[in-house]
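Below: protein 1.
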Amino acid sequence: PRKKHRGRALDEEDKDFNRTINSARAAIENINQRLKTYAILGGIYRGDIDDHQKVSKIAQVVSALCNMNLNKH
């Protein structure tokens, strides 16, 4: 986020930018909290950590399943 300078207020462009950043951050933090609540990513991954594509695909699938579960409720 953009910070105000001492003794000055933020202009509207900076406020809009900060709102956009904060709303994206809030969405990501909510997803992380859901994953922690369900202890989905709490286990130990025993696969090859050098295969970044496989690890990112696993995280995407886990996130999609978590979101699908929440959409049902």
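Below: protein 2.
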Amino acid sequence: MAYSRDEIKQITDKVLNMCKADAVEVRFSGGERSATRFANSSITANLIEHDQEVQITVRYGQKSASATTHQFDDESVKRTIDAVQNLARRKPDNPELMPLVKPPQTYLEFDAALPSAVNFGPAERARMVKASTDICEKKGVLGAGYIPKFDWVDASANSEGLFTYFHYADASFILTCRTPDQTGSGWAGTTGVKDIKNIDAEMLTNVAADKAIRSRKPRAIEPGNYTVILEPRPAARYLSLMTGSLNARNAEEGRSFMSGKQRGETRLGEKVFGDNFTLRSEIGNPILRQSPIGQDGLAAKSITWVEKGVVKNLFYDRFWANRQRKEPTGTTPNMSLVMEGGTTSVEDMIKSTKRGLLVTFFWYIRPVDNMTLLNTGMTRDGLFLIENGEIVAPVQNFRWNESPAVSFNNISALGPQVPMHTGEAYDNPGTALVPAMKLEDFTMTSISPAV
């Protein structure tokens, strides 16, 4: 069971009462992390961890320091407080340290811990594994999957009287299928969903298995510029490459793609992407479970970052907002992220493509140039050649060099939105609603040996 609001309030009150400093902030994080891993038609691990942590931050003027403890008895708390207070006194002043956020803060109320996710245990996960492995055996592929579940509480309190509490639960289903000869591979998954009924393990297994079978013995084609159709997983990874550029400070200091021609200027209000690119943060989205508590305890609010290609807002942290005499944004660009989609299915995108590639997975993406958002990465787990509206063959994987700043001006079709994690891993916050995308003139630079 997750910690209740009253239980955490008792813990934070204890810390606040015991601290002797100019200002104090207490952050609580704890709950259940569990998961089931499976491979070769059997469960390989059932993992469960119950953990809790309190981070204590104390201030003396502009000096501050933090320390954590996993034990909440008086002796452990006092030992941690003594250590952090001694450390803070020795720290240099931080000129960017802002005053603590004061109440009242009005947080949007919604249920992010549905019973289906809270109670999603090993038995339910085992049934998904059974359904998945049965399909893999029937289709003659080897499946390796991961089903993580979080039932977690994040909370905070400070010496100004602010108290926040957020309880959430979610789960994911991630599967990679390989052919026995190891020449074919396919991926499918859904991540970070708070209602377990939105996880269809059988459908996802069929998708991954069919990709693996179809991708066997790929043929080589020349690198070059292609029309590409990104399924939601590579689309989500690709989208994440531009959200960091929405930081106002980096832009105003001339250090990002959103910087203007002169130092201090930004591209706010400019049309930098295509008409069909709209990006926003929807706090309280019914599918995503992101927190209504923003930076430093500010109330997070829904915000449009880009509308029909025009940059509408940039993220201002509290220090930079105060310096520039603006309101702090509170909501960061990766909270409850939603990219507006369309109605074109991947199948219809394929039918409308004269020659191109269907991309099912990106991996090992690394930045090349922050000013242009140029990145490099590789495809894997199934790359397919499209000719005259049909998939005609699997092809060898490519390394690519491309920028969302270019690609998001070359979107020719969008599919319906689905929940998909934007990061490399799947265990942390970061699930967004992302559509499949059809992009023109995407640069594939060289052959990759990935499967």
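The mean pLDDT is 95.
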